[in-house]
Design brief:
By secondary structure, the protein is mainly alpha-helical. 76% of the residues lie in helices and 4% in strands. Bound molecules: zinc ion. The site of zinc ion (ZN) has 9 residues, from loops.
């Protein structure tokens, strides 16, 4: 085998390895695991958000309950006043004071009823949050169970992939043996931009870019001790015998 034969063989093995590496990065099992992992992370975040919201609402409810309780106390005081008025001699009563007290009692009554409405609305919202949390937890438990099961399969898969990769890598290493350093360096420079730095010459057409090259290119390749590259795409040209 001459240097170009070696290089062509090396490229073939290297591309095989690269394609295998790409393929195994994206197996259905891996993809599903990544999806489940994302779902679990998002679920965690949702849970903590909903819990925070629910906590704020609970705090608000106890705040309102305290306020409502103080209104109820005020109203009880007023009721005491009313029973006092009812025992008084009507002549002695100040009508203005009583009207004022009645208005105040109405105001307190309205306030209490509004606060109770708010509390009941907040309680409903907390119940919705609780239902959301329960639903999310259930879905997360299912996802976690699937994840754990698939992860075991994945470990088996990963082990066999690792073995295949090691074998393919050693094939590529072996294929590099005997290729002179300067040729390998030039190959690697082209490899930085192209998957396949070596192209087969078909007639006088570059197999890499399909451009027709000058007549005589094949004899140039055969007789040159340097690498000949396609003037269009820069690939190293190779004649497969
Ligand atoms: Zn070309």
């Amino acid at each position: 085998m001459n240097n170009l034969d070696l290089l062509w063989n090396y490229q073939t093995k290297q591309i095989e390895l690269e394609r295998y590496e790409k393929k195994v990065k994206d197996t259905p099992l891996r993809r599903r695991l990544i999806t489940l992992q994302r779902f679990l992370q998002q679920g965690q975040k949702l849970l903590s958000d909903v819990e925070k919201q629910a906590k704020l609402k609970e705090d608000r409810i106890s705040e309102i309950e305290n306020k409502s309780k103080s209104y109820v106390d005020d109203l009880e005081d007023l009721n005491k006043d009313f029973s006092y008025y009812s025992e008084c001699d009507p002549e002695e009563l100040d009508e203005k004071e009583i009207t004022q007290a009645v208005k105040e009692a109405e105001r307190l009554g309205d306030n209490i009823s509004n606060l109770r409405k708010t509390i009941s609305r907040l309680r409903q919202e907390v119940e919705v949050s609780d239902a959301k949390i329960r639903d999310n937890l259930m879905k997360m438990r299912q996802a976690k169970a699937e994840y754990d099961k698939l992860y075991k399969d994945y470990q088996v898969e990963a082990k066999s992939i690792e073995a295949d990769l090691a074998e393919k890598r050693s094939v590529v290493e072996k294929a590099a043996e005997g290729i002179p350093a300067d040729i390998m360096a030039e190959y690697n420079r082209i490899k930085a931009n192209r998957e396949d730095p070596v192209a087969i010459l078909n007639g006088n057409i570059c197999g890499g870019c399909n451009l027709q090259l000058p007549i005589g290119i094949s004899s140039l390749i055969r007789n040159s001790d340097k690498l000949v590259r396609c003037e269009n795409c820069g690939r190293i040209l190779y004649i497969k015998e």
